[in-house]
Write a structure and sequence with these properties.
This protein is an alpha/beta fold and 348 residues long. Helix content is 47%, strand content 18%. Helix 8 links the parallel strand 5 and strand 6. The relative contact order is 0.17.
């Protein structure tokens, strides 16, 4: 179009009372979807899904309905394949997500940091990583990988359960078949402990546990109760806190860029608030002097075993080769930074 024509067009638009809007502002004002698709692995019976629901409601309220979001639990937008979720967000198949660092680690190798066995140690150690310089660096990495990270959530520390016997030593795990998530570091960790790990989705894990094809699993205690794993022959739980499972609230970048700056800030602050609420839900009864949730698990007829420091140290020693193998893949400097943050923590 020639300059004269452009000028005429601009003048006409101005005369009609419709000013021309160029660039990202036009995109922001003209490309909102009627509904955005948010992916989670689990629904609102779990703290994870509850956090997503809180985010959805806050955004709808604070944008006065400009941004409407629908949750798709069970990673149903990608046929239940948890490890494809990050790629699907980047590609736009999924608009938004509250996802696990574990599930996204095959695409973003630095996220395996949180799966290094016995790194975080406790809630204070996890906070020292996610809420400090390490967390900021992880967000930069996720951003560079093509997805917009906004806030941290938490699935919790993953405890081990099985149908056969109490686990107090690595020797107690010998030969037991455990369902593990689809991240190779989990295969390495359980193999180092003498177990027989089998990778499968959560949807496949439940019937496998029910049939006895798999004898054990590892998940936070809130997942244990919400999924009623005591009804799937899981009679023994050991609290070893070997791996923390932080969640990240994210948005597809094209979707993010389509919103006005004001709406982006609303969504970001809502994610932070939802994340804080979700973390509190996930930790309720499992932190500090309040261990009431453990009593709820025991009331289901499950034996809950607490490891002594010496018993925990035996597991840490057994998986030391896993840490040595994975540290260079994650990034030696990043791991050292995380270790320093955990060491300097103030346990709550």
């Amino acid at each position: 179009m020639h300059r004269r024509t452009l000028l005429k067009t601009g003048l006409a638009a101005s005369t009609l009372g419709t000013p021309l809007i160029f660039g990202s502002q036009a995109l922001a004002q003209g490309s909102y979807k009627a509904e955005y698709r948010l992916s989670t692995v689990v629904g609102t019976a779990f703290p994870w899904g509850k956090g997503a629901e809180i985010w959805i409601n806050l955004v709808k309220e604070r944008t006065q309905g400009r941004i409407n979001i629908k949750m798709y639990p069970g990673v149903s937008l990608i046929n239940g394949d948890q490890t494809r979720e990050f790629t699907a967000i980047r590609q736009g198949v999924i608009d938004m997500a509250v996802g696990s660092t574990i599930n996204w680690s095959p695409q973003v190798k630095q996220l395996n940091l949180f799966s290094l066995p016995f790194l975080a140690q406790d809630h204070a150690g996890l906070d020292a990583m996610t809420q400090g310089a390490v967390g900021k660096q992880i967000f930069q990495i996720v951003d560079k990988a093509g997805v917009m990270p906004l806030a941290w959530g938490e699935n919790g520390f993953r405890e081990v359960s099985n149908s056969k016997r109490e686990i107090r030593t690595p020797a107690d795990m010998a030969g037991l078949k455990f369902r593990v998530v689809g991240s190779p570091i989990f295969n390495d960790t359980f193999t180092a402990l003498g177990a027989n790990p089998t990778q499968m989705s959560w949807a496949d894990a439940q019937p496998a546990l029910a049939s006895g094809a798999v004898e054990g699993q590892e998940n936070p205690l809130h997942v244990f109760t919400a999924a009623k794993l005591n009804n799937l022959a899981q009679k023994y739980v050991t609290r070893w806190g070997y791996v923390a499972d932080p969640l990240i609230f994210v948005v597809n970048k094209d979707v993010w860029n389509s919103w006005s700056p004001a709406d982006r800030e609303i969504v970001r602050l809502a994610a932070i608030e939802a994340g804080q609420q979700e973390i509190a839900i996930a930790r309720k009864g499992l932190s500090g002097s309040d261990q009431s949730f453990v009593k709820q698990v025991e009331a289901l007829g499950v034996k809950v075993t607490e490891l002594s420091p010496a018993e925990k140290a035996a597991f840490e020693k057994a998986v030391a080769p896993v840490k040595a193998k994975w540290t260079p893949q994650i990034g030696t400097d990043l791991v050292k930074q995380a270790e320093a943050a955990v060491k300097a923590r103030k346990p709550g």
